[in-house]
Write a structure and sequence with these properties.
The structure is a single chain. The protein is of the alpha+beta class. Helix content is 48%, strand content 8%. The chain has helices at residues 2-23, 47-50, 56-66, 88-97, 130-140, 146-174, 182-198, 212-220, 226-237, 239-244, 252-272, 279-287, 297-301, 313-316, 327-358, 360-376, 384-388, 391-403, 440-444, 487-504; strands at residues 72-77, 80-85, 178-181, 410-413, 418-421, 427-430, 435-438, 505-508, 533-538. The protein has a four-stranded mixed β-sheet with strand order 1-2-7-4. A three-stranded antiparallel β-sheet has the order 3-9-8. A two-stranded antiparallel sheet has the order 5-6.
């Protein structure tokens, strides 16, 4: 009995220490003059999400609506103290005006400060911190100007026309129409675009469905796997331990695969003087310091999509004379472009295709604009300037991003104490080390900013109406200096494939088209519950 007690006592002590660590901040918000969500051990305020009782998008909308009259409220995300900011003016202050207090994202996927770690995610632009992030943003920013996008546009058109030809032949061979699952369709398209634009290789994920590039990418994106879920929780609860163990969010097999592709491509291009208008070439120039920050007149005068975010002064500066971009960091940037292109773009396209299918009048009007644009081009290939000039296309895409933002929320880390003072009755301190959630889905579905928010209405973004939109309430690509650097690239990719697909096919409902659409529950991101099934019907 004494031996049993001797064994039991350390176990009880360990469990008590773990419980204390997990719950020590549970009463943090009680001392603040703001409301807060209920907290449960292990779950924080996120039990319904963690137990897959709701989708991430719906979770953000629900917590946003929980305290409709407040500017900010508190919650616990497992063990993280989080301020959820609802007020557009405060969002603007945190994201833009007082950015220096909130320069980093919270460290949930790896530690970017350890220069010796081989974990790739911690070296991506999204995970880098402080001055290293500033230097990398300034280094990469010139690669995403309008002029650079124009140079890559032909590669996207090639992938778009290749996809149209494939489905045209498929339907002809089948002797009639055939329904398609949109997430699968657009994931394969996005995969091929990223392969050619970011990695400098050509793959065909439609005709060669099981190519290595696609399969490795798909494995990397399976965030709902149990092992990945365990990693995600561990990164939040014991981030220093995960860094010490050199554990990466990505599997080593996939990381090694993509790393070798980049290394081979760079070696070949250096050896043979190969120049290709893609991201690898731009990153090679950036590593050599040859990619200078130039804002050409054409960039200033370019017609931009409403959702396009502007580069801040941080991105426009020259990088400081510090540590040059390493080969591993170069690989990491290609990987984050891959993840954004593979998932974010395919998600946007999936929900856009759904809305065009169930809103036939919108689809028909967009098709007429596509016909008019094609005629103005004399039947020639789509150009960057032509797609930028399609006003209704931009309205439709902007509304799809409002209703179904690929990222339902974004976050910031408070890097030093920040006093919130609205000049009225609200005054308190956001302490260093706490996090901020900006509830994008909640803002996008707030009738105060977007009347009748559940209706798909592109007219919200017409020339007459877009001036009524508060920019701090429409954030599909984030806000401030840490907004999405690739918004131009994503938008031209989305518009290009929709242009070519609607030119050739109409999108039609099938018995498997779920209306209304329901979202997958849990941390699955923006996913439909049963897939989005649409029929491609050839136009006469």
């Amino acid at each position: 009995m004494e031996i049993d007690l001797m064994l039991l006592m350390p176990l009880v002590a360990i469990l008590a220490a773990v419980y204390f660590y997990i719950t020590k901040d549970n009463k943090y918000f009680h001392e603040k003059p703001i409301p807060s969500m209920a907290v449960e051990p292990l779950f924080g305020s996120s039990r319904r999400l963690m137990l897959k009782k709701t989708s991430f998008h719906e979770f953000i909308v629900d917590i946003y609506n929980k305290f409709p009259l407040v500017k900010v409220f508190g919650m616990m995300d497992i063990t993280t103290r989080v301020f959820v900011v609802r007020d557009p003016e405060l969002i603007k202050r945190i994201g833009v005006k007082d950015f220096d207090y909130f320069v980093n994202h919270r460290p949930v996927f790896g530690n970017s400060e350890d220069t010796h770690t081989t974990a790739l995610f911690g070296k991506t632009l999204i995970a880098l911190n402080d001055q290293r992030w500033r230097d990398m943003r300034a280094t990469l920013s010139p690669a995403f100007t309008g002029s650079k996008m124009r140079q890559m546009f032909d590669l996207i058109v090639e992938c778009s026309t290749n996809m149209v030809k494939y489905y045209r032949n498929e339907i002809r061979t089948a002797g009639g129409t055939k329904e398609q699952e949109m997430k699968d369709v657009f994931t394969r398209f996005a995969n091929d675009v990223i392969a050619t634009c970011a990695f400098g290789i050509k793959v065909d994920s439609l005709r060669n469905a099981d190519n290595d590039f696609y399969l490795n990418g798909k494995k990397m994106m399976m965030f709902n796997r149990p092992i990945v879920m365990v990693k995600l929780i561990a990164f939040r609860v014991v981030p220093k331990l995960m860094s010490w163990l050199n554990i990466d969010l990505f599997d080593r097999e996939q990381s090694a695969y993509f790393t070798e592709i980049i290394r081979d491509t760079v070696r070949t291009r250096d050896a043979h003087g190969i120049v290709r208008p893609d991201m690898v070439n731009l990153l090679m120039q950036a590593r050599k310091g040859a990619l200078k920050q130039q804002r050409e007149t054409e960039d200033r005068e370019e017609v931009k999509g409403f959702a396009t975010v502007e580069e801040s002064e941080v991105g426009r500066q020259q990088p400081s004379k510090g540590i040059p971009m390493t080969e591993l960091e170069m690989v990491a940037q290609c990987l984050i472009f891959f993840l954004a292109g593979f998932d974010t773009v395919s998600t946007c396209l999936t929900f856009l295709a759904y809305e065009l299918t169930v809103n036939r009048e919108v689809q028909d009007r967009l098709y007429e604009e596509i016909r008019a644009t094609s005629e103005s081009l004399g039947g020639g290939p789509l150009t960057y300037d032509a797609v930028q000039g399609m006003q209704y296309m931009d309205m439709v895409v902007s509304e799809a991003l409002r209703m179904w933002p690929p990222a339902p929320s974004t976050d910031r880390l408070c890097v030093r104490d920040y006093v919130v003072d609205d000049g009225d009755r609200l005054k308190f301190t956001m302490d260093k080390g706490t996090s901020v959630f900006i509830p994008i889905s909640g803002l996008h579905h707030d009738p105060q900013y977007f009347p009748n928010p559940s209706k798909f209405d592109p007219e919200r973004f017409s020339e007459a109406n877009r001036e009524k939109i508060n920019p701090s309430t429409y954030l599909p690509f984030g806000i401030g200096p840490r907004n999405c650097i690739g918004s131009r690239f994503a938008l031209m990719e989305v518009k290009s494939i929709i242009y070519y697909m609607l030119q050739e096919f109409s999108f039609e409902r099938t018995p498997n088209t779920q209306v209304p659409l329901r979202l997958a529950k849990g941390f699955a991101g923006m996913r439909s519950e049963k897939g989005v099934f649409v029929e491609f019907r050839p136009r006469k």
